[in-house]
Design brief:
The protein is built from 13 helices and 21 strands. The chain has 474 residues and is an alpha+beta fold. Helix 3 (109-125) packs parallel to helix 6 and helix 10 (334-353) runs antiparallel to helix 11.
């Protein structure tokens, strides 16, 4: 889960970030947005849900007043034709049906990467027609993505090797409103060329090559559903892309091993813990600090003097935690050092996978990809005699960071840092992967296989077979 996933997609009126002149549009790719557009259209017959609306201070006395849910708060919008109308309801409810528009249009780059990588996996699975699954390129990914985004799913029927048996490959795209809007517009794709290149690199890697050829050659009917999921259970799951396989004969469903993917697009972040909020006070901040640091063998208590500032509180908390960690590794006691290594490895594993051992992190960066597994990290650290040390710093932002590194090589294993929005109304403790952790968890060196001339099969308009049974496991 990325830090900004817990921020509202369109917090327009309630956070004080935007003002009059800000442009929005109905989020017609989401249920709340479609409902809001329908409500407006009942009173304004020529209203089009795709219109960009400008938030304005005043409305003429004869402007339409449209009740949009419960509440009495009002907000005025000017249409492209210059006319103004007023929505009445709760500001929180109204903004829930809107997306940013114009120059303020927002999207999540990680969501874009989820959609593109899901399309790449799908393109690989359907690249049939020769002795082996073919090598895909960016054009294959774009063809699949373009077919899927309009209806948010697409089904392909492709034959097995030397057989008339047909597999069914289903690709689902579940993304937030602004991200889905961006990825649905092919004119925007050039902005994400590195994500397309990196996704092709992953799809042509050993793991993807292996399972794609398995389904191509196994001589049995398979139903495979790939889901790029930026919506479901963000706080309770670590996977962004799931591949589910169903045996049509038995109805048995299973997740494809090693393809539970947590995706990172140009990001070293692998975990986060909430701070308790800007106005949470000592009780919530101490709870947050203990949740963050207790797994390292650190104890946090409320300060003797109550604190009114969240940043000051966590500066002290980070420094205190770093000091307690340093004590654990200070006296060259092998048993204590090993115990600390084990604690650190357990913390990393939890935040990277939410304790799901089959989750792999795929890093997409600079047109290439790397695959990372956190299972067995503890043993690898011990075998490589990683000698951990701890450092505490205050950055130029004024926020604290704890760095855990190998004393021998000075390579950074991981960083824990306090992060906040510019306004300070949202903050988190962020876990970041360092170069040492990158190398310790890297399990695949991607090598592009020999290119074949296979062409992907054309999409059908069929609905996913037994779709309810497949969807319930996602």
């Amino acid at each position: 889960m990325r830090f900004f996933e817990f921020l509202a997609e369109a917090s327009i009126f309630t956070r004080g970030t935007y003002s009059y002149g800000h442009k929005v549009k109905a989020a017609t790719n989401a249920e709340k947005g479609r409902l809001l557009a329908d409500i407006i259209k009942r009173d304004i017959s020529d209203y089009d849900g795709s219109e960009e609306l400008e938030w304005v201070k005043d409305a003429p006395s004869d402007a339409p007043r449209i009740q949009a849910g419960k509440g009495t708060e009002t907000v005025n919008f000017k249409r492209p034709n210059g006319s103004v109308f007023t929505l009445v309801g709760s500001l929180k409810s109204i903004q829930g049906g809107l997306n940013h528009a114009g120059e303020h249009k927002k999207f999540n780059k990680g969501d874009i990467a989820e959609g593109v990588l899901g399309a790449a996996i799908t393109a690989k699975l359907i690249k049939r027609g020769s002795d082996q699954i073919g090598t895909i390129d960016v054009n294959d990914i774009k063809k699949v993505l373009g077919s899927a985004v309009s209806s948010q799913h697409q089904t392909y029927e492709v034959e097995d090797k030397n057989s008339k048996i047909a597999d069914k490959i289903v690709f689902n795209v579940k993304l937030t409103g602004p991200s889905l809007e961006i990825i649905s517009d092919p004119k925007q794709w050039d902005k994400f060329s590195e994500i397309f290149d990196s996704s092709a690199h992953y799809a042509n890697s050993g793991d993807a090559e292996r399972y794609s050829n398995h389904f191509y050659k196994n001589g049995k009917v398979d139903e495979v559903m790939i889901t790029s999921d930026g919506l479901s259970g963000q706080k309770s799951r670590k996977t962004d892309i799931n591949v589910v396989v169903r045996d049509p004969a038995t109805g048995k469903v299973r997740n494809l091993k090693n393809v539970d993917i947590s995706l990172k697009a140009d990001s070293s972040q692998y975990g986060q813990v909430g701070t308790g909020g800007k106005t949470g006070g000592d009780a919530k901040w101490v709870t947050s600090a203990n949740k963050l640091f207790a797994p390292f063998g650190v104890t946090m208590e409320a300060p003797a003097q109550p604190s009114n500032d969240v940043v000051s509180f966590f500066k002290d908390a980070y420094e205190n935690a770093a000091h307690q960690m340093m004590i654990q590794v200070a006296d060259n006691n092998l048993n204590k050092e090993t115990a600390f290594v084990e604690k650190v490895a357990d913390v990393i594993f939890h935040h990277a996978t939410l304790n799901a051992p089959n989750v792999r992190i795929v890093n997409l960066e600079k047109g290439e990809s790397t695959i990372h597994s956190f299972a067995g990290l503890k043993q690898r650290m011990i075998e490589k005699n990683v000698n951990l040390n701890v450092d505490f710093t205050i950055g130029r932002s004024g926020y604290p960071t704890i760095t855990i590194f190998d004393e021998g090589t000075k390579q950074v294993l991981t960083k824990i840092r306090y992060f906040s929005t510019k306004t300070g109304d949202k903050s988190a403790h962020v876990f970041e992967k360092g170069p040492l952790l990158h190398e310790l968890t890297k399990v695949v060196k991607n090598k592009t296989p020999k290119t074949t001339t296979a062409e992907p099969q054309q999409a059908t308009n069929a609905e996913p077979a037994n779709k309810p049974e497949l969807e319930k496991v996602v």
